[in-house]
Amino acid sequence: MDPKMIAAALRQEIDDRSLPPGTVLKQEDLAARFRVSRQPVRQALGHLVAEGLLVQRSDRSLAVAEPNLEATREVRAIRCLLEVEALRLSLPNLTDAQIRKAERLALDLIEEEEIAMIEELDVAFHALLYGACGNGRLLTMIDGLRREGRRSYARQPMGSSERIDYAHQHLALIDACKERDIAAAVAALQRHLMGDKNG
């Protein structure tokens, strides 16, 4: 099992609170659990620290981070600035086929129940809308910030008010993109990013 797979498994458990905030993660225990040496575990934990999901304690052990509301607000504000710019640059270059594909992803999101797939579809939806912006560094920055703010996917069960709101927001964004209305698309994206806890 490689570091990315280990990180993904631990990330899922942090999301669904199988590993609640404050839980200490020990390399030797994880190595035994995943049947690997400590090296891939160490790399996986490094990814999760970089994403803000784990923090180093005074005794140098790693623990699941407590949610930081101020940091979440800061990340969301920066994301909004960057993602709005990416959409503004991308929309004139998007094909009708790409917009239809984004719409299908938005519709699939409405029906999906598995947390990992909700995240995958949501990331793919936004990546598709921003992908024609022509600025790879901007997309890399957005990707990093999305990983930092990813922990609310577990709070989107089927039928929840959050899930319904996200669906309406995504579809409003798609409608504006279909009309090639940059101002309306930007406004829809701003409402989505600043009004929700995830995006």
From TrEMBL:
<dbReference type="InterPro" id="IPR008920">
    <property type="entry name" value="TF_FadR/GntR_C"/>
</dbReference>
<dbReference type="Pfam" id="PF00392">
    <property type="entry name" value="GntR"/>
</dbReference>
<keyword id="KW-0238">DNA-binding</keyword>
<keyword id="KW-0805">Transcription regulation</keyword>
<dbReference type="InterPro" id="IPR036388">
    <property type="entry name" value="WH-like_DNA-bd_sf"/>
</dbReference>
<protein>
    <submittedName>
        <fullName>GntR family transcriptional regulator</fullName>
    </submittedName>
</protein>
<dbReference type="InterPro" id="IPR000524">
    <property type="entry name" value="Tscrpt_reg_HTH_GntR"/>
</dbReference>
<feature type="domain" description="HTH gntR-type">
    <location>
        <begin position="1"/>
        <end position="67"/>
    </location>
</feature>
<keyword id="KW-0804">Transcription</keyword>
<dbReference type="Pfam" id="PF07729">
    <property type="entry name" value="FCD"/>
</dbReference>
<dbReference type="InterPro" id="IPR036390">
    <property type="entry name" value="WH_DNA-bd_sf"/>
</dbReference>
<dbReference type="InterPro" id="IPR011711">
    <property type="entry name" value="GntR_C"/>
</dbReference>
